[in-house]
Amino acid sequence: MAKHKDENVKLGRFISYILRHHPEAVNLELDENGWADTEELINKINLSGSAIDFAKLNEIVKTNDKKRYEFSDDYKKIRACQGHSINVDLNLKPVKPPQYLYHGTALKNVEIIKKEGLRKISRQYVHLSIDYETAYNVGKRHGKPYIIKVESGKMYDNGHVFYLSKNKVWLSEDINSEYLIFE
């Protein structure tokens, strides 16, 4: 059972790599909205040396703790919900954020963030969390975690746009340090 779970995690990371960053790694094309043909994705993953079928792909999508992927209603297409470093239009609608959101990072990044603010760098958006705990879990993936409180309500009132992805990650363009609270 543990081997099965580890295998699914490894395959899930590979799927994320393909759908969010490098579809060309398996010679796959995404449409302008980030959708890939499900059957083609399965075939191309199998040709790359990993073993997957629809049942395994469906299990990975359903059990992914971050809910990174979604199927179209007919399951013929699949895409990542957010986190792309490639240009895709997820058709996100602007949403009014709560008063505060949180950004998890590593302590080693704090000084540069104080100077430059939060930058999307290679991603389409800056990723923000609704709660401290989620941001902490994100931050610890990068080193000693540090949580930055974002004055999202104030930003919104000043004309900044926010989006909420299907997997409940808040997204924004770059955020100036004037809206960041370092505690």
UniProtKB/TrEMBL annotation:
<dbReference type="GO" id="GO:0003950">
    <property type="term" value="F:NAD+ poly-ADP-ribosyltransferase activity"/>
</dbReference>
<dbReference type="InterPro" id="IPR002745">
    <property type="entry name" value="Ptrans_KptA/Tpt1"/>
</dbReference>
<comment type="similarity">
    <text>Belongs to the KptA/TPT1 family.</text>
</comment>
<dbReference type="InterPro" id="IPR042080">
    <property type="entry name" value="RNA_2'-PTrans_N"/>
</dbReference>
<comment type="function">
    <text>Removes the 2'-phosphate from RNA via an intermediate in which the phosphate is ADP-ribosylated by NAD followed by a presumed transesterification to release the RNA and generate ADP-ribose 1''-2''-cyclic phosphate (APPR&gt;P). May function as an ADP-ribosylase.</text>
</comment>
<keyword id="KW-0520">NAD</keyword>
<protein>
    <recommendedName>
        <fullName>Probable RNA 2'-phosphotransferase</fullName>
        <ecNumber>2.7.1.-</ecNumber>
    </recommendedName>
</protein>
<dbReference type="GO" id="GO:0006388">
    <property type="term" value="P:tRNA splicing, via endonucleolytic cleavage and ligation"/>
</dbReference>
<dbReference type="Pfam" id="PF01885">
    <property type="entry name" value="PTS_2-RNA"/>
</dbReference>
<dbReference type="GO" id="GO:0000215">
    <property type="term" value="F:tRNA 2'-phosphotransferase activity"/>
</dbReference>
<keyword id="KW-0808">Transferase</keyword>
<dbReference type="InterPro" id="IPR042081">
    <property type="entry name" value="RNA_2'-PTrans_C"/>
</dbReference>
<dbReference type="InterPro" id="IPR022928">
    <property type="entry name" value="RNA_2'-PTrans_KptA"/>
</dbReference>
